[in-house]
Write a structure and sequence with these properties.
disordered N terminus; 8-stranded parallel beta barrel; two-stranded antiparallel sheet; 19 helices; 8% strand; 645 residues; 32% helix; disordered C terminus; alpha/beta; 10 strands
Amino acid sequence: MMMMERFSWSRSFPSSSSSTPPPSLSRKSGDKERRGRSRFFCSPSGSSSLCSSSFHPEKNRKKIDDDDDDDHQSALLKASDVFGTSTTLQRRRGARAKVRAITKEEDSEKNDDDALSDDQPRWSGEPSRADANATEIETTATPAIQPPATTSGYTRKWKKRDLSWARDAIPFYVMLPLDVVSRDGVLENKEVLEVALDALARVGVDGVMVDVWWGIVERKRPRNYDWTPYYELFQICEKLGLKVQAVMSFHACGANVGDVYEIKLPDWVLESGIQDPDLFFTDQYGYRNPECISLWADDARTVAGRTPRECYRDFMVSFRDTFENLLQSTISEIAVGCGPCGELRYPSYPENKRSPNSSQWRFPGIGEFQCYDQRALGALARHAAEVGRIEWGGSGPHDCGGYNNLPQETGFFRADRGSWDSEYGQFFLDWYAKELVKHGDKTLQTTREVFDYEKTGVDVAIKCAGVHWWYNSRSHAAELTAGYFNTRSGDFVPERDGYEPIVKICAKYNARLNFTCVEMVDGDHPWFSRCGPEGLLRQIRTAAAKYNVRVAGENALCRFDRSAYERVIKNARGEGDDVELWKTGEKLPPMACFTFLRMSRELFELYNFNSFKEFVKRMKAATVRDNLRLSRSSSSSSSSSSLNS
């Protein structure tokens, strides 16, 4: 694969002067994307080779057309002076002075053909750009139905809403670089970052997504949280009127596709792993993956006197208490990490670029089952005893191959008479998938208890991996090793929807489901890998529609070409305008929001930024529904179908 030079936020610009900490962090004061390889070969920074040309600020400034609107000129002027590799700090300050002068002269002319006006409806809960300093718009809501109490101990308190949200343009977010906060807990290049975020806000971006790394915030010792860099970041976003999607990243960075920066778990967690090696996922070769804590160790009190679940809860409670004054007004969503890359899956396909002697997965390998630590084997043995087949509880399948095998090369995953299509295959895959769903259920329960909607006003979400290779084969091998029991019907095993159980737990806790592959088509990938991103995305969105779970989309690869943008707009808008058809899954509803992957130097190159600006405008215009047909039950009261539990 053709690889380009890595882009690192912290290494691309001179370090800014050390900043003073916020006056107080008390209550009163204040991203791996799963990547499939495609013909649009992606650089390690996540950018396409289509945007690899070097950036010359002087040349690009001259190319700006005189008839461009002032917002666009201002944004490009900022980007060119900030992101040009030969520009000095003194020239950046001069550029900012020019931008301020331009900003004062900007008029209020609107382009009715290309962009939405400020008077048009925006997404629920956020004011228009003209009312950015005014009180937030209060959305009318129908009375909530009180659902029965769940056996997990969490009583659902449904968010008051109806289906009228689908009339408005969907929110548009941009994912920040992985290393926007350094490993030492410093917000890198604050002046550069603020100028870049301002440029995004000017072209219509609603907010940003940022990883809140466990390995940075709690790096020193247990219960010692350093929120200073994130406080500074959120203050910048609040100043610019940008919303924030905060990802509780309880995993390490650097072992998967698209990871250009290395962030480990906290040292005291890794030390606990030395004392208790079964704290981490283990493959059949005995390799222990330190990317995240094994789900079978969720309740093991071996992490500095706490269980991992208690560590996650304490972390989120501290975040909630520290940023209490920014919840809902600036921080609109909390996405909780449930595994590697923050996704609810097993680490079945780790690249481990920085550990060449460890397991090396390469696309389109099927991956491996991760159930060989002692706690996992104990759980498997107990399950085998419960079903009366103790001989099945000794270990995982013996004929499933290795990380880089193809399905037809293994006895377990081959299409005809593979072991997956047998009584034993049904037993093992069902147990393996249910353990993952159970972990997601408990993690979402903990998150909802901390971020109760009636008290905080923020949405919660989890992310599901876009394992699209081998989707168009019978066994769906790569999905099976990742924990999704999603197969076609065989001689013994019936057809299974491996994503419906995950959608159900999202409905249970009124959580969003984040999913990638929004820009992909099947033809982007090698034919022999049987990739099916289109079918996979539709399957998940159909299941989500039936259970009234809102799906938020992301692009898997950073692309700036028209075909990718067209695909994103088509998927984000959904199908038709009939709410009743959305409820049955016959038609796909619009997405809850879209997050663009990711802010980088390539984004601010002249051609790319021009196309990105038009993409944002067209996304806003295309996702407004003036002719939405709401049923009486949806528009007048919250019915049981509109709040399907």
